[in-house]
Automatic annotation (TrEMBL):
Pfam families: HATPase_c, His_kinase
Keyword field contains Kinase: yes
InterPro entries with a match to the protein in the record: Bact_2-comp_sensor_kinase (IPR050640), HATPase_C_sf (IPR036890), HATPase_dom (IPR003594), His_kinase_dom (IPR005467), Sig_transdc_His_kin_internal (IPR010559)
Entries under PANTHER family matching the protein: SENSOR HISTIDINE KINASE YPDA (PTHR34220)
GO CC list: membrane
Gene Ontology terms for molecular function: phosphorelay sensor kinase activity
SMART domains, per database record: HATPase_c
Domain Histidine kinase: 288-389
Protein name: Two-component system, LytT family, sensor kinase
Keyword Kinase belongs to the record: yes
Signal peptide segment: none
Keywords: Kinase, Transferase
Superkingdom to which the source organism belongs: Bacteria
């Protein structure tokens, strides 16, 4: 979908440039100086203006985003006035003749219902108003009309009709991208909720049982474990942003492992090797803990001898490299592939597919989990985390209650 939208944007831009150039030639001729041919000059200005108009529209169609983008869109068309509307009202007006708001909304019934653009003559009794024609181009996302772009001019122009339609199509693409961004955000939130739900009830029951076993024999130890349990659950169920830092995630993992070690004692050993310079790296919330829980499960399941888990986080230039490895029962690689593809229930791989999907959504497909395993050979999971990614910022330390 994103490739199609990018291709559509590229296809539309030359048409925008041609419309922009013709409109500017008709409205306000300019001295092009040494910037090349008129078409080259128009293309450059179109790309620059479009790049300024796009960011507000990527937040959706609201009064604020319409106001921020209307002036740039009017510049693209070279027209005297432009307004953006939703289904019910004018969201923003830029240029002359703002007194035409009511008249325009009264004429939008058919375009908003059918999704087809049209042009009509404006009625005006204001002696100083030069606007005589309005061109309406609906804004559609997934075949649903969200509003309209209306360009107003002193005279009827076939060029303006064509250009307004192309600009409206470009705006619709930005709104569709905004819709996709919002869908991705909702998906990430749903997946975080799913991960929280996957925190094993058995783990909670067993942790409380272990704490209870120390209440009489070692009250201080019971108190320490109760605090570990409280801190772990508080972090896991927090509502404080979609991203956290590697330091906070590792801190939560340390609480989790303290409870696991209290239950299994010498049967489980853990080695951590963390480079201090990667601790501030931001990453999706609850991204590593499920991988460690998976290592614990496979490291202890069906084994009577000691199990070992190692967790390393290294500086790899522009990335942080996190590796979680256990010497447990491992998994059949074909079954792992089907789990990651969502073809089978991940009963043996807690959160693996969930974490893999989230990493790909946030960073791109090249940042999915790399998992090495075989039956009886343990499992090694590698996660690459870019030190900087647009939109990935930690919400800061968890506030104390």
């Amino acid at each position: 979908m994103s490739g199609f939208l990018a291709g559509l944007c590229i296809a539309v831009l030359p048409l925008l440039a041609a419309g922009f150039w013709l409109g500017r030639r008709t409205a306000r001729p300019e001295n092009l100086g040494g910037l090349g041919t008129p078409v080259e000059h128009a293309t450059f200005e179109t790309l620059h203006t479009a790049s300024l108009a796009a960011p507000p529209l990527r937040a959706g169609l609201t009064g604020e985003t319409a106001r921020k983008s209307a002036r740039r869109l009017r510049t693209l068309l070279g027209t005297d006035a432009l307004c953006l509307t939703d289904q019910d009202t004018v969201l923003a007006w830029d240029g002359l003749g703002e007194h035409h708001r009511t008249e325009i909304m009264e004429r939008l019934g058919s375009p908003l219902e059918t999704g087809r653009g049209e042009a009509f003559r404006l009625k005006c009794e204001e002696p100083d108003c030069s606007l005589r024609w309005a061109v309406v181009a609906p804004l559609t996302v997934d075949d649903r009309v969200h509003g309209a772009l209306v360009a107003c001019a002193p005279r009827e122009s076939a060029v303006l009709v064509r250009a307004a339609g192309e600009v409206a199509r470009w705006v619709s693409v930005q709104l569709e991208l905004a819709d996709l961004d919002q869908s991705r955000t909702r998906l990430i939130e749903a997946e975080i909720k799913a991960l929280r739900a996957q925190i094993s009830p058995h783990f909670i029951f067993n942790s409380l049982a272990v704490i209870a076993s120390f209440v009489r024999t070692d009250p201080e130890r019971a108190r320490e474990l109760l605090l570990e349990f409280a801190d772990f659950t508080r972090y896991s169920f927090r509502r404080h942003g979609d991203f956290t830092t590697l330091a906070d995630e590792l801190h939560a993992i340390d609480h989790y492992l303290a409870l696991v070690r209290a239950r299994f004692g010498d049967r489980l050993s853990v080695t951590l090797q963390i480079a201090p310079e990667v601790l501030p790296v931001a990453l999706p919330f609850l991204c590593l803990q499920p991988l460690v829980e998976n290592a614990v499960k496979h490291g202890l399941e069906g084994k009577t001898d000691k199990s070992h888990i190692s967790i390393t986080a290294q500086d790899a230039g522009a990335e942080a490299l996190v590796v979680i490895e256990d010497n447990g029962t491992g998994m059949d690689p074909d079954r792992l592939r089907r789990i990651l593809a969502g073809e089978v229930s991940p009963s043996g791989g807690i959160g693996l597919s969930n974490v893999d999907d989230r990493l790909r959504q946030v960073y791109g497909d090249e940042y999915g989990l790399v998992i090495e395993t075989a039956v009886g050979a343990g499992m090694k999971i590698t996660a690459r985390l870019p030190k900087y990614q647009p939109g990935v910022h930690s919400a800061g330390p968890l506030p104390r209650e």
